[in-house]
Amino acid sequence: MRYLQGILQIRCCPDHIREIAVIEFKINDKEVKAREGWTILETAKEYGIDIPTLCHHPAVAPTGSCRLCMVELREGDWSKLVASCIYPVKKGITIYTETPKVHNVRRWILEMLLASCPASEEIRELAQKHGVISTRFSVHDPNQKCLICGLCQRVCEEVVGLSAIAVLDRGVHKKVGAPFLRPTDICVGCGSCVTICPTDAMQEIFDTVRGKPELPLSQLA
Amino acid sequence: MHNQSSALQQGPCRLESLDDLNKFREQLERNIDPDHPEIVVCHGTGCLASGGEAVSNAIQATLDASGIKAKVIPGIKTTGCQGFCSRGPLVLIRPQGIFYQRVKPKDVGEIIEKTIVQGEIINRLLYKDPQTGEKIIHEEEIPFYKYQDRKVLHNIGKIDPTNLYDSIMAGGYQALAKALTTMTPEQVVQEVELSGLRGRGGAGFPAGRKWRSALLAIEKKGRPVYVVVNGDEGDPGAFMDRTIMEGDPHAVLEGLILGAYALGATEGFLYVRAEYPLAIKHLGIAMEQARAHGLLGKNILNSGFSFDVRINRGAGAFVCGESTALFTSIEGKPGNPKPKYVRSVEEGLWGRPTVLNNVETWANIPLIIDKGGDWYKKIGVSHSTGTKVFSLVGKVNNVGLVEVPMGLPLSDIVEKIGGGVPGGAPFKAVQTGGPSGGCIPYSLKDTAVDFDSLTEAGSMMGSGAMIVMDDTDCVVDLARYFLRFLEEESCGKCMPCRFGLSRMREILDGFSEGRGTQADIDDLISLSKAIQDGALCALGSSAPNPVLTTIRYFKEEYLAHLEDQNCPAGVCKALITFQIDPEACNGCTSCARKCPVGCISGGKKEPHTISADECIKCGICKESCKFDAVRII
C-alpha cells in the first residue's frame, strides 16, 4: 500500500495495483483523509468523531431525513449546515461538528422528538447524551415510538427487494404502514424492518403491515 | 411546399422557415379589417367566476338574433385574464378601446345597441376612479393599467389563447424562427446571459448562468438533457403563472422550445398543477396547434431541430413546486424532495442534466431573443432586470394582476396601481413571496421591489404574490395561517419541517389565546433558526420567514397579545369581546335577527346587548350593523 499525492495504491494481487483517489479535508480543524465517494459521516466514523444519527444505516442508501447529523461547513466568514450522512467529501473543505448552529438544530430536534416519540427509550437516551432532558412541547400520543425515519421502508425495498412497507401521506399526517394501508401478503416476515428500526417502533407496526389481506394477491392475477 | 395563399382556408399547414412564418403572418393581417369592431370578453378564471361566460354567450346570442350584422359586423373574442379581476366581468370594445366593467348579461343589449351601432358610451358601465371620482372611458387611462409596464403580459387580454393565428399576428414564434434561422444555440445562451434575467420562481437564480452550468454538465455527461416548466404555482394568493399559461400559452411554449434549442434538448415537460384545468387545456391546445404548424415536434420550421413536450399534471402537493420534489413527481414517485448537494442542472430528471425554470421565466425568453438581451437589460434595475408580474390581493381596491419594472417602490404598486386600502387608510403591511416570504411594514413602503432589496428587508420576491393588509389584520394570525398551510403541505420527510412547523404553530396558538410569554418569542426565534438551518428543502428552510418578519416588525403586537391580553386588530377570538354601543344602537334588530346563536337581545328601537357567554365571536353582527354600533373590545 502506497500513498502519494492524493492517490492510494493498493496491490490487490501480485499483478494488479488498484488506485483509489483520497480526499483530504478537515473535521474540527483536524486533517482527515477519505476515499472518493465517501460522505462526511463515513469519514467521521473512521476517525471516531461522534455525530448523532437516527435515520442512517450502512445497509441502505442515506436520505437525510432526521437531520440530527447536521454539521457546519465553513468557508471564510460564510457557513452553512449540511447533512453529513449525504454530503459528499470534497477536497479542502472545513467541517465543524460541534458549533452553536449545530447544537441549536440538534437541541430542537431532540426536544421535539421527546414530545413526539415519548415512549422511545432510545430517543430519551440519545437526548440525554446531548443534554436534552426535558421538552417544552406537549405530548399528543404517549405510546408513540415511531419517528418516521423510513429505514423500515428502505430496507424492505433496497435489501429485501420487496415493498411491503410504505411511508404514507404527507406532512403532519405522515405515517408508516402497509402500502395504501391495505395489509399485504407480499411480506415474507424476514424481520429486517424490526431489526433496523432505531426505536423498536416497528415491533408494533409490523402486525398492521402483515395482517390477513382482504383479497390475497394470488387472486388478483 | 404548401400553397401559402390558401393556407388559411386549408387549415393546418406546416411552416417551413422564417420567411414562411412572415408571409403567413402578413396574410393573416391582411384579412383583418382595422375598423372592424371587436368585442373582447375576458375569460380569465376571475371573470369566469364572476359570470364572464354568461356575458359572452349573451353577446353572441344578441348578435345572432339582431339584424345588426347588416350595418356592422362585430367579432366577439374571448381572451385570457386582463388582470383587473376585482372589476370583472370585463368587456372591451376595440378598436376604440372602450372599457366596460362589472358587465351583466342584462347590459349586453344596451352595449350592442348603443356602443356598437350608435357609437355611444354607456356611462354606468365605465370605471370610476375611487380617488378622483372621475369616470374613465379607455383602458389605458385607468390608473391600474396606466402605471404598469406590460411586457410578459402584453398579449394577454388581447389574443384568444386558443387561437395560434392570434398569437402569430401578435408576434408569436418570431423569436423562435429568428433563433433557428439566424442564431447558433450558443448565441441564444449568450443573449439570455446578457439579459440578466433571473428566475421568476422565487430564489432569483440567474437563468443564463443556470443554462451555462447545464452546458458544462452536458460536456461532462453528454445528452439527453431535459427542459422543464415549473407551473406548480401554489402560494396562497398567487396566480401569475396560471394567467400566463391560460392567457398566452404559446409564449411559454416558445420560450421552452428556445431553451431546448439552446441546450440541445429533444424532450421537455410542462409540470402544471391539476388545480389549473384551464391552463392545462390551453397549453394542450397550443401544443397541438404548434405541432400541426411545424413549430413543435420533428424538424421544427424545417431547421433539422426536433423537440417535443408533454404535460405532467401535479396531483395537488404544494411541495412539488420544489425542484427535486417536482422531478421525483415527474418520474412517477411520491413528490418528496431530495437533498440538493448536487445541483439539478447536473443531476435532475432521471439523473440527467435538467434545466427547470418557472413559467414566467420561460415566457420572458421569446422577448429577450426577439428584442435582444441589451434591450431587456435596460428594463428594471441593474441586478434585477426586466419586469415582474405580481398578483395584488388582500385589502386593496384594485385586486388583480400587475406587471411592473423591477425596482419600483412598494408603495407605487400598492397605492398607485392598487388604489390603496379601501377606506383610504395606509396599509399596515404587505406580505410578499407567499408562505415563504415575509411581511413588509408600512414604514418600509419605499422599499424597491427587486430580488435583493426584498431579501434585505427579510422577505423575498418569491413567485410574486402580494397580500396587502390593513389594521384589521392580525400579524399573529397571519403567521399562524401560513404555518398551518405549510404544516399540511410539508412532505414530512425531514424532522425540522414536519415537527417544527406544527410546534411553532402550537406556540403561536398560545399567543392567539393569550397564553404566550416572552420566553415563547425567544423560543420562536431560536426554533425558526433551527428550521432554517436544518430543513432538507427550501419549503422548510423558508417556512419561518413569516414568523421572523412579523416578530421583527410587529413585536409590539405580539407583546400586546401577552402583556395586555389584547389583539389590537380584533382578530384573535379568545382575546376579544363584541359589545354594542347603546348610544349608537337604534334598535333596528338587524344584528339580533342575523346572530347564528341568538345571543343578542333587546326590543325594537331599544339598544341591544350581546350575551358574552354565548357569543361565538363570528362577527356577523358587526358586518350587519349599518350604524357602526358593534364594537370589538
SSE blueprint:
The complex is a heterodimer of chains A (221) and B (633).
Chain A: E1 2-4, E2 7-13, E3 16-27, E4 30-35, H1 40-46, E5 70-75, E6 78-83, E7 94-96, H2 100-116, H3 121-129, H4 151-160, E8 166-168, E9 175-177, H5 192-196, H6 202-209, H7 217-220
Parallel strand pairs in A: 3-7
Antiparallel strand pairs in A: 1-2, 2-3, 3-4, 5-6, 5-7, 8-9
Chain B: H1 7-10, H2 18-30, E1 38-42, H3 45-49, H4 52-65, E2 75-79, E3 91-94, E4 98-100, H5 108-118, E5 127-128, E6 135-136, H6 143-146, H7 164-169, H8 174-182, H9 185-195, H10 207-221, E7 226-231, H11 240-247, H12 249-263, E8 267-273, H13 277-292, E9 308-314, H14 323-330, E10 354-358, H15 359-371, H16 373-377, E11 380-381, E12 384-385, E13 387-394, E14 400-405, H17 410-417, E15 429-432, E16 438-441, H18 451-456, E17 465-469, H19 475-489, H20 495-512, H21 518-534, H22 538-542, H23 545-553, H24 555-563, E18 578-580, H25 590-594, E19 600-601, E20 609-610, H26 620-624, E21 630-632
Parallel strand pairs in B: 1-2, 7-8, 7-10, 8-9, 13-17
Antiparallel strand pairs in B: 1-3, 3-4, 5-6, 11-12, 13-14, 15-16, 15-17, 18-21, 19-20
Helix pairs in contact in B: 8-12, 8-15, 9-10, 9-12, 11-12, 11-13, 12-15, 19-20, 20-21, 21-23, 23-24
Give descriptors for this structure:
heterodimer, A: 221 residues, alpha+beta, Ubiquitin-like (UB roll), Alpha-Beta Plaits, seven-stranded mixed beta sheet, two-stranded antiparallel sheet, 9 strands, B: 633 residues, alpha/beta, Glutaredoxin, Rossmann fold, 5 domains, five-stranded mixed beta sheet, four-stranded mixed beta sheet, 26 helices, disordered N terminus
Fold and architecture overview:
The complex is a heterodimer of chains A (221) and B (633). Chain A has 221 residues and is α+β, with helices and mostly antiparallel strands. Chain A contains seven helices and nine strands; from the N terminus they run ββββαβββαααββααα. Chain A has helices at 40-46, 100-116, 121-129, 151-160, 192-196, 202-209, 217-220, and strands spanning 2-4, 7-13, 16-27, 30-35, 70-75, 78-83, 94-96, 166-168, 175-177. In chain A, the strands form two sheets. In chain A, strands 1, 2, 3, 4, 5, 6 and 7 form a seven-stranded mixed β-sheet that branches. Chain A has a two-stranded antiparallel sheet with strand order 8-9. In chain A, strand 8 and strand 9 (175-177) form a beta hairpin. The N and C termini of chain A lie far apart (56 Å). In chain A, 36% of the residues are buried. Chain B is of the alpha/beta class. Chain B folds into five domains: 38-143, Glutaredoxin (3-Layer(aba) Sandwich); 164-378, NADH-ubiquinone oxidoreductase 51kDa subunit (Rossmann fold); 381-469, Ubiquitin-like (UB roll); 475-563, NADH-ubiquinone oxidoreductase 51kDa subunit, iron-sulphur binding domain (de novo design (two linked rop proteins), Up-down Bundle), CATH 1.20.1440.230; 577-632, 2-Layer Sandwich (Alpha-Beta Plaits). In chain B, the strands form seven sheets. Chain B has a five-stranded mixed β-sheet. In chain B, strands 2-1-3-4 form a four-stranded mixed β-sheet, covered by helices on one side. In chain B, a hairpin with a 3-residue loop joins strand 3 (91-94) and strand 4 (98-100). In chain B, helix 8 crosses helix 15 (359-371). Residues 1-10 of chain B have low confidence and may be disordered. The A-B interface holds A 63-68, 70, 80-83, 86-88, 101, 104-105, 107-109, 112-113, 115-116, 136-138, 147-148, 150, 169-174 and B 317, 319, 338-339, 341, 487-496, 498-500, 502-503, 506, 523, 526-527, 529-531, 533-536.
